[in-house]
Amino acid sequence: MFLKHLTIQNFRNHEELNLDFDSRLxxxxxxxGEGKTNLLEAICILSWLKSFRxxxxxxxxxxxxxxxxxxxxxxxxxxxSVLEIGFTSKPSVKRKLKFNQEEIKKEQI
Length: 109
What we know:
By secondary structure, the protein is mostly beta strands. About 10% of the residues lie in helices and about 40% in strands. It has a single domain, classed as Rossmann fold (3-Layer(aba) Sandwich), CATH 3.40.50. The chain has one helix at about 35-50; strands spanning about 1-10, 15-20, 65-75, 80-90, 95-100, 100-105. Strand 1 (about 1-10) and strand 2 (about 15-20) form a beta hairpin. The chain starts with a strand and ends in a 5-residue tail after the last strand. The model has no long low-confidence stretch (mean pLDDT about 95). GO terms for molecular function: ATP hydrolysis activity.
């Protein structure tokens, strides 16, 4: 399984980011505090549906925002799929998962 595209909105220090991955080997390079680990955390959440650093989704929301959104386009053999995770803290705490545009529950993955 390969991650082909990653979309991040209001996640940690990233306001909006779209990345295409065309290689099996990818390097994230930058100064301290630029968000390299946050990219890995977003990929982790798309893979395992949980963060390796934070237990509360509300702490993943970019400062001053009310929600975050992650989308990953994955390729498995010849088939491409899209997994989306959205989390909002207002008006109530809510997390939504979508797989190929269909809303699903965590247990279905």
